[in-house]
Amino acid sequence: MRIPDLKIKHVSSIIVSLVLVSVCVFSANAQRVIDYIDISNPFLRKIPIAIPVFRYTPETSPAERIAREMTQVLSQTLEFTGFFKMLNEKAFLEDLQKTGITGSSLNFKNWTAIGAELLVTGGINVQNKLVVVELRLFDTFSGRLLVGKKYKGWHNDIRKIVRRFCNEVIERLTGNKGFFDSEIVFVSAHTGHKEIYTSDFDGYNVKQVTKNRSINLAPSWSHDKEWLAYTSYARNKPDLYIRHMAGKKRGFYVSFKGHNITPAWHPKRMEFAAALSKPGNSELYLLTRTGKIIKRLTYDWGIDVSPSWSPDGKKIAFVSNRSGNAHIYIYEIDSGKIKRLTYEGKYNVSPSWSPKGDRVAFCGRKNDQFDIYVMNVDGSRKMQLTRNSGNNESPCWSPDGNLIMFCSSRTGKSKIYVMTAYGTDQRQLFSLDGEQFDPNWSK
Amino acid sequence: MYAANDYLVRSDIKKLTWALTLGSSAIGHLLFFAIIFFFPGLGQTNKEIPTIIDIDLVSVTEKEIPEYEALDSDTDMVDISDNEGTSETYDQPVSAPMQQPKRVYEPKKFQPLAPIEQPKAYKPLKPNPELIQPEKMIEPKQERAHEPEPVQRPEVQEIKPIEKPKKPGKPKIKRSLKKKTLKKEKIAQNKKKRQLTDTFRQLQQKVRIDEARKRIRQVGEKKSSVELMDIYKAEVMSQINKNWAVSVQMIGGYETHLSAILVINIMRNGYIQPDMWFEKKSGNDYFDECAIKAVKKSNPLPPLPGAYLRPVYGPVGLKFTPSGLK
Q1: Is residue A167 classed as helix, strand or coil in its secondary structure?
Q2: DSSP characters for B201-237?
């Protein structure tokens, strides 16, 4: 009698609870279904940064001049990297001279309001011959101090101080070292002879290296920046010269029979690869700093030139015409294996291995025009970086792998240009008379 | 047998029927409530999801700017600094369609009026107007950006009386002043670089916009709140895109496949509730941070449409992918 009764109760209660549970679950699900909006097109492809004029003490016009100059140098130096978009000074709502430069005295809302995501504040105290500079990098949204440094130096050390601070900034933001202490070497013909020159990474401080009134080409930095190898016709045939940059140590030269060209320093050791035509046709050799042959690398009937080391020093990209046309190949030092990278076109030269090791930049010819390309080290994902702007040749990477320097004839004569590794922000490095080419970036 | 007969005959029958009726009515009620409970949600999502595609509607609403401005000044004058942050909020016209849906779609009359908002702001761009002219035809956005000519101001004045009857709106001077500076800068900077690359996209956009207009015209007055929310979503998308700055180098180039979903809730007045969270992180801290900054800069978003009845719109997932970089 009672049993069925109980069953009914059970059944009905189970049904009811099931319904309740399902309602709860469904309603929870219903609330969970959310709308999505695709945000896929950033308006700005850089980091907006504000660098207001440094606060200066004492409040005199020479101090102001130095503060302004330093602010400008800092802006230019950071802008060079291609990472930042400098916000226009006219948009700023705050003046450091009035507010102060520490986190507590700044109203970050006034900086986020104009779109700045980063803010550099500087304070400069101009003494008799010294300057004491405090520089800070802030995240404007969190108000966090990202970098804070204090420097002391002579008046003409301003650029040095700025570069040191920029190194800190880049390292803090990207985790990689900045390249602001690096130098470049290039060939310039502005005196009427193709001589080798060096300059800072930004084209500032140009110095002449060779003065032999001959033809000097293809300069290359050793990994410690102390030695320079280059090709010179000083003895009326292309020989290799190895020169101590400070000039304190004796130089060497390599003058085997035939040509001795395109040196490339090993990324870690004091050795270099170069193309010698000693055996009859141009082959790659590995040589010591003093010019002694360690071993011959390639054995082929074709011409092999322009070696470029992988950052780990285990492979070399080079140019060979073994297939009939000039193409880029990779040579493995240990195994001696050779792999072809480029198949398109008939002329691909000047390989340059990126410091990160994943990409190779090179110069390719298409429709009688030379342009810069980059590709993965297996030849995939080829990307054209320059187009419709004269001939663009001799690419080389910045030490951090974010920029590529090259020479271009877009304005008539060949000049040296810089762009990001994606081909954006192309600009001329400096204006010297005559032609400049064959740039090489130190570590 | 006995038991069965007994069971059927006795008053137990009453108990059974009673229990059954009670149970079934309970089920019926619960089902009813359940349906009511999640019907709106389902209804919305079903209708809204497909329309996400029509993101580029932004530009349609741009024409309504004059209307919106009046509205906007009414609603959020509160936080000046935030407003500045949103800098190029062309998109704010949203609110107009919400309250006066019909007018929103009479924009053709108002087309030339678009620049009202910032004629002065773009003066510095004057040197290039010729370059840009072809684009004028293509995209209303650009049109505004590059139509600095003071010549249009007289028009502006003529139109004001038209606006006023709609919304008595207080003029919000501060805001427009600050907007100017930001816009100047950003536009000047990106304009040249992006002109060529954007042309194609703009053409595509125009096609979509035209389609959207056609559709809207067909639907005419029957326009539902779903469509309003489409427009609203497009406004949100546009506003956040404009405030989104991400360094290509820091995210590993143009061909990156990063993607992050940031979930927010939007209040009736357009302000974003402070508790936002990542439904999915990209794995790149910098990229995630940029997404948050873009949203913060865009706060407040345009107010919710009047036809939207709930106090809070959300959760809304903002799907950040740098695919537009390519």
Answers
A1: helix
A2: HHHHHHHHHHHHHHHHHHHGGG--HHHHHHHHHHHHH
pLDDT of residue A285: 96
Backbone phi and psi for residue B277, each to the nearest 5 degrees, phi listed first: -145, 160
Is the ipTM above a cut-off of 0.85? no
Pick from A16, A38, A141: CB nearest B23: A16
Cα gap A426→A290, rounded to integer Å = 38
Nearest to B323 among A36, A40, A45 (CB): A40
Helix axis angle, B12-51 relative to B225-242, nearest 10°?
A: 50
pLDDT of residue A365: 95
Contacting residues of B for A35, CB less than 8 Å apart: 44-45, 48-49, 52, 229, 233, 314-317
Q: Which residues of B165-174 are buried (b: 16+ CB within 10 A; e: fewer)?
A: eebebeebee
Rounded to 10 deg, the angle between the B153-166 and B65-75 helix axes is: 60
Q: What's the half-sphere exposure (Cβ side, CA atoms, 13 Å) at B319?
A: 11
pLDDT digits (tens, 9 = 90+) for A277-317: 999 999 999 999 999 999 999 999 999 999 999 999 999 99
Distance CA A73, CA A80 (A): 11
CA A258 to chain centre: 36
Cα A367–chain centre separation: 29
Lowest mean pLDDT among A65-69, A254-258, B162-166: B162-166
Residue identified by tokens 């497009």 is B234
Paired tokens of B263: 């979930």
Tens digits of per-residue pLDDT, A80-118? Answer: 999 999 999 999 999 999 998 999 999 999 999 999 999
Which residue carries 């070497």 as its tokens? Answer: A185
Query: From CA B224, how far away is CA B230, in angstroms rounded?
Result: 10
The amino acid that residue A317 corresponds to is A
The label of the residue with tokens 């009672």 reads: A2
Report the alpha-carbon angle B268-B274-B275, nearest 5.
110
Query: What are the chain A neighbours of B297 within 8 Å (beta carbons)?
Result: 112, 115
Mean pLDDT across A39-44: 91
End-to-end CA distance of chain B: 81
Note if the pTM is more than 0.80. Answer: no
B34 touches chain A (CB under 8 A): yes
Decide if A52 contacts A86 (C-beta within 8 A).
Answer: no
Q: Supply A246's token pair.
A: 């400070």
Beta sheet of A338-340, edge-to-edge order: A304-309, A315-320, A327-332, A338-340
Q: How far apart are CA A177 and CA A224, in angstroms?
A: 16
Q: Do A355 and A311 touch, CB atoms closer than 8 A?
A: yes
Q: Are the Cβ atoms of B19 and A9 closer than 8 angstroms?
A: yes
Which residues of B fall within a CB distance of 8 Å from A15? 23, 27
CB A174 within 8 A of CB A193: no
Residues ≥6 apart with Cβ < 8 Å to B120? B148, B150, B180
Q: Classify B84 as helix, strand or coil.
A: helix
The pairing of beta strand A55-57 with beta strand A118-126: parallel
Q: Whose CA is closest to A230, among A256, A253, A201?
A: A253
